[in-house]
Amino acid sequence: MKKVELKINGMHCASCEVLIERNFKKIRGIEKVNVNHATGKATIYFSQTPQYKDLEAAVKEGGYSISLPNPRYSGSNMPRTTVKKNTGKDFIGIGATFLIIVAVYLVLKQFDFLPDNFSISSNMSYGFVFMIGLVAAISSCIAVTGGLLLAVAGKYNELNPNLNGYQKFKPHIYFNIGRIISYTLLGGAVGALGSVLTISTKATGFLTIFVSLIMVILGFQLLNLFPWLRRFQPKMPKFLAHRIHDASSSGNKGAPFFLGASTFFLPCGFTQALQLYILTTGNFTVGALTMLAFSLGTLPALISLGAISSFVKGAFQKHFLRFAGVFVVLLGLFNVNNGLALTGSSIDLAQIFRQNNNTIQTDTSQKAGIIGGKQIVSMKISGLSYIPSNFTVVQGIPVEWHVDGTEAQGCARVIVSSQLGIAEYLPAQGEKVISFTPEQTGSVAFSCPMGMTTRGSAFEVVPNIEGIVPATDSGTSFDLNSEQQILNGPFQKVSLEMSRERGVYPNSFKIKKNIPVQLTIDAKVPLGGCMSVMVIPEYAVTLPMKLGENKTVFTPTKAGTIYLTCSMGSKMAQFVVE
Question: Which residue range or ranges hold the HMA domain (predicted)?
Fold first, then answer.
């Protein structure tokens, strides 16, 4: 048995290995094929020398091309071709695409058409995920998933030659229904798995950075840059992918549905990034809706596969892949910035895109004004940005912190400072006034519970060298005494636990109106991320979570259903008020 080693150009992810191996094995005389996405090479073992045109035709339909890096093997009748490399014209095109996308981004940001965190992150919209699906379907998913769809549809129609046009289209419908249902349910399962793992905020940050680097590697592959990075991309076991493709030759009428469902385990780079992202959310609903939006984004290309396959070739394919590559690299870099925030790093990669934005503050700290022995500071939250984000206050003088959170998004609706013992939910309308007295000099940091708001936000506490006389009331004692009176009085007791084994249990309660409720949450495991602070938004109640029992008190004043949520707004339990 002889062998030849070919260079494969155009592979975007590890799933391409399986597609190319199967196409080569259809050629007469080829006994065994091993394709390695990391090296970009295919090793072919054959008993009868294959024709070069047959090998080329086998991969051309999927958008790949072949070349022969080393023609010295017995019986070779293939011409030697050069390995595809970027030319100077290609690099100019990549640079121009980069500048165009950045310019469009800055213009859209100027008119507030884009979210503050343009990345795969906890505050991205499902519309944004849908857009990622649109790009993924045409750039990298079409070869893998589309090839499987065409194979199963072809087999179905071969076994049923007398079908009309609609009946021939049925496999496409069943395939995509199976794909959407699978992505939704398995996406939710992966999200739920994240809650079982109880990933801390810092661990979530490192996992986010890992997801981002996968996306950057995918972008470089689409641009044909740094091919050696392919070896760092994770992939599913190859035998599993082959089993799924083997099923495409089944004549079973249910095969299209189950094969569509199985594509969750044949992920392209985009899918891998989203799968890892939803793991960090630790939430079934977020995981399910994210993957649902992504699968719906891929639907137009897969439904109109014939037209898309003929359209995305030649010059259009080249320019679209270039756009997709630059877009994915930039998206990955924004996402790295998000991960750095979660790890607590002070590095801010996105600052270069915000340096001319007047709504973002410089390092200048705003000095608090003194009125009646109190320090008054005001801050507005826009998306995930604090405006301003730094204040100078005097030691020992009460502070009234006026926070306008009407435009806050995601976890920014909750503001925390472990040094001050503050965890406050911001109302959708009006200002929240937070009172405290800084007792020691130094820096006092604050952020949202997931650390995704403006980096380096803090109060700088300086000595009272001017002899300012503090007001006699601090504004905090009334709230504390009121809560203590409620704790000592009659109330309804409600208890739940959060554990790996039972999740949030129980998660539904009936309570009486106008009677104080004492809520006890027993955290059996350390809770991080958005679970580090629980919220009852209806009554602006926040409860920072520590290991063991955590208690708070609230009074339901109207009938209906209210919810206990994490700081991101995901519902954890409900209270039916009667």
Answer: 2-67
Joined together, the tokens standing for residue 188 give 């939710």
CB atoms within 10 A of CB 251: 10
Helix 269-281 with 165-197: angle, nearest 10 deg: 40
Q: Where are the alpha helices (DSSP H) in 48-138?
A: 52-60, 88-110, 126-136
Amino acid of residue 58: A
What pLDDT is recorded for position 470? Answer: 83
- The label of the residue with tokens 């030849």 reads 4
> Which pLDDT belongs to residue 451?
73
Q: Which residues contact 391 (CB under 8 A, 6 or more apart)?
A: 365, 366, 367, 368, 377, 379, 458, 459, 460
* HEC letters along 315-331: HHHHHHHHHHHHHHHHH
Instruction: List pLDDT tens digits, range 238-281.
Output: 555 555 555 555 555 677 788 788 878 766 667 777 877 787 67
The answer to whether 147 touches 20, Cβ cutoff 8 Å, is no
**Domains of the chain, first to last:** 2-67 (3.30.70.100), 88-350 (no CATH), 366-462 (2.60.40.420), 478-577 (2.60.40.420)
Peptide bond into 69 cis (omega under 30): no
* Sign of the torsion angle spanned by Cα atoms 94, 96, 102, 108: negative
Helices (H) and strands (E) in the chain, counts: 14, 24
DSSP assignment of 563-576, as one string? EEEETT--EEEEEE
Reduced to 3 states, what is the DSSP secondary structure of residue 556?
coil
For residues 110 and 108, what is the distance between their CA atoms, to the nearest angstrom? 5
Query: pTM, whole model, 2 decimals?
Result: 0.50
User: Which structure tokens are listed for 21?
Assistant: 């191996």
Letter string b/e over residues 523-559, b meaning 16 or more CB atoms within 10 A of that residue's CB:
bebebbbbbbbbbbbbebbbbbbeeeebebbbebeee
> How many Å apart are CA 152 and CA 141, to the nearest integer?
16
Q: Which residue has the tokens 């087999």?
A: 155
User: Burial code of 74-103, b = ≥16 C-beta within 10 A, e = fewer?
Assistant: eeeebeebeebeeeeebeebbeebbeeeee
DSSP secondary structure code for residue 140 in this structure: I
Q: Which segments in the chain show pLDDT lower than 50?
A: 71-76, 78-83, 306-312, 354-363, 474-487
> Tokens at residue 563, please?
């919810």
| Omega cis (within 30) before 438 | no
Q: Which residues make beta-bridge pairs with 377?
A: 401
User: Comparing C-alpha atoms, which of 515, 514, 521 is closest to residue 536?
Assistant: 521
